[in-house]
Every structure is written in C-alpha cells, then in structure tokens.
Amino acid sequence: MPEGMMIDHLKVVWERRPTTEFSLGVPEKVKSCxxxxxxxxxxxxxxxxxDDIADAAYQxxxxxxxxxxxxxxxxxxxxxxxxxxxxxxxxxxxVPSTTGSDAAQxxxxxxxxxxxxxxxxxxxxxxxxxxEAAFWVYVRQCLYTATINQQPPDVDFSLQLHPTxxxxxxxxxxxxxxxxxxxxxxxxxxxALIVNFCFETDPLGExxxxxxxxxxxxxxxxxxxxxxxxxxxxxWDGPATEVDESCFPQIWFTxxxxxxxxxxYHFCCMMLYSFKPxxxxxxxxxxxxxxxxxxxLEHARAICGACRSTPETVQLSITLCHTIFIWGPLVSEARExxxxxxxxxxxxQKHVWPTAWIVNALRAEWGLSQSH
Length: 372
Known about the structure:
Order of helices and strands: HHHHHHEHEHHEEHHHHH
Number of helices: 14
Largest sheet: 2 strands, parallel
Number of domains: 1
Number of strands: 4
Mean pLDDT: 88
Keywords: Nucleus
Subcellular location: Nucleus
Distance between the termini: 33 Å
Protein name: Transcription factor
Shape: globular
Organism: Didymella heteroderae
Strand order of the largest sheet: 1-2
GO cellular component, one term: nucleus
Strand content: under 5%
Radius of gyration: 21 Å
Low-confidence stretches: none
Oligomer: single chain
C-alpha cells in the first residue's frame, strides 16, 4: 500500500487540525521508522477491510515494538508513543462488532510511556511537539473507554495546561491556528476533568465538597464557550425540517476541530446534568422525563445534528458512540431512535468502527428486538 494512501486512511481518526504535529510529523517519520510504518499500515489496511494485510502488519509491528521497548530510552521515544497510539485505533477497529469486547491493551501501553516520560507537570494545549500531539490523541481515546465503562479516565490530572489558551496573544496570522488548537485541546481537557469527576470513587469525606466542585466544572465549561474564538461558532444552523427527512437540527462548521470541540462541549453539559449532586429518586416514573432529562436530550440532539451534517468528521461520530451510553435510554420517539441507529450503522459501514453492539444495547434499553 503506498505511503500516501496509508496516511490518508490514518487521518480519518483525528480531526484535520491546522497545526497538529500528529498529522504533520507522522507522515515524515513513517519513512524512517519501521515500527511506526507497520502501525500505520495495520490500521490503514484494517480501515480498508484488508484483514490479512492488517494482521500481518500488526504482528510485525508488535515484534519490532517489543525489541524497541527494551531499549534504555524507550519511554522518551516519541515515535514509539505515536505507534502505540495508532495501534490503539487498530485495536478499536478489531473489537467484535456484536459484543464490543475491548481489552484496551494499547491504551494501557500509551499510559505507561506517557507517565514514565513526564519530565515536568505541564502540557502545552497547542501541541507544538509530536509527543504532545500524541498525548491529546491519547486523552480522547481515554474518554471513549471511560464513558463506555463508566470509570475514571487513565489520565494524570496533576498536569497543568501551560500556556493557557486565554494567555496566548500573537498577531501573526499563523498564531490563530496555534490558538485554535489550544482552545480545542482545552475543551478536551475540560471533558477529561468532568468525566473523572462523574465516575471517580467518592470517599465519604469528600462528598460535602462535590457540589462546589460541580459548580466549578460547570463554570469552566461555560467560560470556555464564552471566551473561545468566534471561529468556533457554527457557520449555519437550523431546526430539523421535513424536507431533510431528519429529526435533528442542521449544524455546519468551518473546520473539523470546531465540530469536535462542539461535540465535547455538549458532552460535558450532559455529563454534568446527569451527575449533579443532590437528592434524587432511585426509580423514575415510567414513561416520564424530568427537566434534567430533557436538557440532556437537547444536548444529545445537538451532537446528532452535527453528526448528520458532517459525517466525515470521524472524531465527532466517535463522541456520538460513547455518549449514547449516557443519554440513549432517554430517547422515546420512534423517528429519533431510527435515525440514531442509522447514524451508528452508517459509521460502521464507512469507517469500520464497531457499532452493532451499541445498536443492540440501545434496542435492549428501548425494549425492542435485536438487530441481525
């Protein structure tokens, strides 16, 4: 498979961010790093459904990776980190579509290298290096696994973002691209903080502080929406129409990373609504939605609308897949259910991302027969 074609397939799993070293650095290093080359080949071939080539490349990559990991400075080798991050995508595409069984071995491998090589406790959200770009890809991979399994993400939360997007000021035209990368990754970090808050164990001594922490996180997300560059706003949005045969709003953005940040913002809001501290009934009234449920569904519909409008933004479709486990059971309208299932099936058809098990889980929650 030509190198250009391999890279083109790999690009589907990260938004085409303007300054990311991942999309710029990986193609350059593939030519001289066999481990990285075989990692990219294994994913690209799997994405093309060329399973024999994918399996052979994967086995070769693992053999080379084992040898390289035994070297003294392996934990500081950014190409090895990139290779393992890419192997995680390969691993996700290899999850059985009907069961969703995921060992997440390469996610653990990325975590081990990142923690072993953390020289300081700061990370740059503008991702100026290949290692930092790989870090942000890893964080988004963690969000998927954490949400589906409802567990804290394996992220070092002692890290501080430096510089913060709000402190970055430069009049150079290219600085805008660096700034937008930083604001996108700020939203990624906010999401990780919120997912950790929602799924972390809750020691008795800390319960009294949860309401204050919840408010702090809510303010953090709303401040991001208020202060982000105007370019993150949609260029057009409108309500669902019969002409479009869709239940969901139409929403378009100028760039992939704007769309991804939009999805993460709505994900944060629905998580905070779902896990807001306070008294609640253990059992809900059958067939009724609370005001909180309705607010969650409005955020879910925004994600669905953006997914339908820009199906080529794979990272947003991945967000749809894992956030469904938060809001999916609340959907009661038959047309909305049908369109959600279509979005999931279409994602698997186009990008080999396993969604049949998600569809079956939804149907079970909705009391419907399983798909075959």
